[in-house]
């Protein structure tokens, strides 16, 4: 999908925690599963889609935590030490869901881990889950830091660099902490965690995917 359309999906996508009873469209589930399969082949992750399962988010109760009516979710599973991949490929699937009209919310703690479905193979771990469904609303945008808060950007720097950072600022991060920092050296960019925070390596993966889309540079942009 072209960059302009992907950027629009990033702007449209907000965290949604209250869902209607409408089941996921069967064709949308097929397309989403195809994207999951593609991501798993490419990354070595074991991300799984669970549908029509009310226990993890206690969907049959009026509300659980901040959630209501969630019966569908992604289980982000993969080899240990793959936090960045968990975020990167999870967000790729999340934006495909957004394209299909499915709302979402990254969830680390506010679900019943013992009730959630999904399996882990030897050497794998469950990183977190992503709630999915048709929201009662499309959610609200999060407060954004400025470009200079999260990078060394200055006047005269390439437009692709600015566009990549703007896309990165649209990325969901744990408790909206935005604990990341970009530094550019010519055509290469370094991305690192900035300060202490929760799930910051997973956040880096999400941010990386956004930056690649916004900048149009792809994975070759990163400094080794």
Q: Which segments are poorly predicted (pLDDT under 50) over 5 or more consecutive residues? A: none
Give the number of domains: 2
Strand content: 15-25%
Query: Helix-strand pattern, N to C?
Result: HHEEHEEHEEH
Look at the structure and give the CATH class of the largest domain: Alpha Beta
CATH topology of the largest domain: NADH Oxidase
Fourth CATH level, the homologous superfamily of the largest domain? NADH Oxidase
Class from secondary-structure proportions: alpha+beta
Distance between the termini: 27 Å
- For the biggest β-sheet, the strand order reads 1-2-4-3
What count of helical segments does DSSP give? 5
Give the biggest beta sheet. Answer: 4 strands, antiparallel
Q: Report mean pLDDT, rounded to a whole number.
A: 95
- As a percent range, the share of helical residues equals 25-40%
The CATH architecture of the largest domain is 3-Layer(aba) Sandwich
The radius of gyration computed from the alpha-carbon positions, rounded to a whole number of angstroms, is: 17 Å
Total beta strands: 6
Shape: globular
